[in-house]
């Protein structure tokens, strides 16, 4: 059995760099002295680490602060708006989206391209993703990491997409393929799109720290947030609510089961039942109180209620956030969905379930992907600093 070894100088610096950057991010405008007081580090240590962060473009100095007594005036420290950006990519069933966000999570640019990814091989789709990355990389900002949102079961540690029924993909090394194709030498994170959408809602939305975010597109996924943290399950494969069977005698699903939620309440089924060709036409029909369109949405709401009531009964979640297409349909989904939840959730009489539309809508997953790349730098800045200053 090996004996514990003392921490190296590099390990200590790495830990302290994370402490200092977290203090600056949590209290923008703090001086070096304030950061030292907040972290418990010496002023000399903080000053040295801050200077490295300024040199790497992570931190920017503002104006000197007012001081009533003697001594040198401190300067305000902020996360640099021109520092490393996170590049988010979302591989949807019928589109590709990319997004650049700065260290504070502010969106610098976003692109969406229609793309029938069901009809293409993984290699062809990932080649399109690499092209989209090149376009984003042409923006005049440094990129510190790439986050990729995909609709399926993802082994996050290795960046492998195990299965994506709506794409027809199995065992795709998304991280490896993109790393080989991209013009960037930066870390690549691959995760489930619903989980990343839930994280974006947690970071930027108007919700509590406990909720289920349900992404309604052609597929349906759920991101579960408990106590301000993402709940992914033991293997990281949790949240596949779209493949929860709500009608065992229902239509066959691409996953192999029958009566899955997304076959009864997904975007394709709602559009088909409403007799329209797309979501925009559906919304126009709903606005004019078209009976067929209204019936289609109410039917989807009832199936959603069945699935979500099960999730609430199991996990005691107080809030449901409707994302993706569901966010746009919320005015027509809300009433029948509430009715179903009130009827099926055992604790509804004492703890009514709140249903809200996502404030990020269709942008949530790609924002979460970009934000995850940024937050990886903020949580452990020293590798980025070292790469820039080397």
TrEMBL record:
HTH marR-type domain sequence ranges: 18-63
Family note: Belongs to the ROK (NagC/XylR) family.
InterPro entries tied to this protein: ATPase_NBD (IPR043129), HTH_MarR-typ (IPR000835), ROK (IPR000600), WH-like_DNA-bd_sf (IPR036388), WH_DNA-bd_sf (IPR036390)
Domain of life: Bacteria
Gene source species: Saccharothrix syringae
SUPFAM superfamilies, sorted: Actin-like ATPase domain (SSF53067), Winged helix' DNA-binding domain (SSF46785)
One example GO MF annotation: DNA-binding transcription factor activity
Protein's name in the database: ROK family transcriptional regulator
